[in-house]
Amino acid sequence: MSKKSIYKKLMTESTFAQPPREATDVIANNVDAFDFFTSKPVFKTEVDEQSYAGMKYSSPEAKIQVDKDITVMSKYLGKASQQVIKTMMDGVKSGKYDAMDLARGIQTGPTKRTHYGEDEFIQQLWTKVRDGFRRYSKRSRLR
Fold it and tell me: Is the pLDDT of residue 114 over 60?
């Protein structure tokens, strides 16, 4: 066998010539990457929700208190939901705007008018009660 045939065989049968991956792909896919010089993690990862299930409470009293506080927080959110829906209904009933104006205003507009997550909360409330707005619109359609 000559050298030329070995080279040809390597080139046709082997897959050793791979295009190099970008450095960002390698780092982005490696959550456990450490800085070479400082030995500190490159990415500060937050504890994901799945790992919370395996964690224990600091004490049985803490678990009881957290459960109570979450119930209180839920009541506050329920009251806030009622106020938001009441404001929506009052605006449509008084004729300031119709239901489609409200829907469009929720989806578009200045981003600084609400805090993070509040837009989605209002959007969810709108989807929950939009059928109730049909009685206040002409031809019982939203538009």
Answer: yes
